[in-house]
């Protein structure tokens, strides 16, 4: 019978001590810059306010190209510009409809008050006994 394979009758093993591994910190190495490509595509397709989403997409592609080429500093600059244009496009696309809705609601409220006042003016009834004629 071949006894080279492990058998079912294991002996209890003593608990292993954890060996401490040294922690390595790399100082000065920063993570690669983000290119914000998904955000730029979203702004280009769905929230294209004054073509800022398209401009952000162009800077995002440039940032990704520079990152792939290994020029981290240029990738950081393009990434920063892409983030700025994406922020402006998103803020403009969110704030403008809210502003238009607020103006529309305010106008409707003002017109309804004006209409109520004009209805009161045109429903004035003159009485039969005028004291001014005597």
Word description of this protein:
It is elongated, with a radius of gyration of 36 Å. Helix 1 (37-45) runs parallel beside helix 3 (72-122) and helix 2 (52-69) runs antiparallel to helix 3 (72-122). The protein contains three helices and no strands. It has helices at residues 37-45, 52-69, 72-122. It has 134 residues and is mainly alpha-helical. The chain has a domain at 41-124. 58% of the residues lie in helices and 0% in strands.
Quote the beta fraction: under 5%
Strand/helix succession: HHH
Helix content: 55-70%
The major beta sheet can be summarized as:
none
- Sequence stretches where pLDDT stays below 50 over 5 or more residues: none
Gap between N and C termini: 139 Å
Average the pLDDT over all residues and give the rounded result.
81
Task: Count the E strands.
Answer: 0
Tally of DSSP helical segments: 3
Radius of gyration: 36 Å
Principal-axes geometry comes out as elongated
Decide which structural class fits the backbone: mainly alpha
């Amino acid at each position: 019978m071949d006894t080279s394979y492990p058998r079912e009758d294991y002996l209890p093993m003593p608990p292993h001590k954890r060996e401490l591994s040294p922690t390595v910190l790399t100082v000065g190495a920063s993570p690669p810059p983000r290119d914000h490509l998904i955000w730029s595509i979203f702004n280009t397709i769905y929230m294209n306010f004054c073509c800022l989403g398209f401009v952000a997409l162009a800077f995002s592609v440039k940032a990704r190209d520079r990152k792939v080429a290994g020029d981290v500093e240029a990738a950081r600059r393009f990434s920063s510009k892409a983030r700025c244009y994406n922020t402006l496009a998103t803020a403009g696309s969110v704030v403008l409809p809210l502003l238009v809705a607020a103006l529309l609601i305010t106008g409707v409220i003002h017109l309804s008050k004006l209409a109520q006042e004009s209805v009161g003016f045109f429903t004035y009834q003159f009485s039969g006994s005028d004291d001014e004629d005597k």
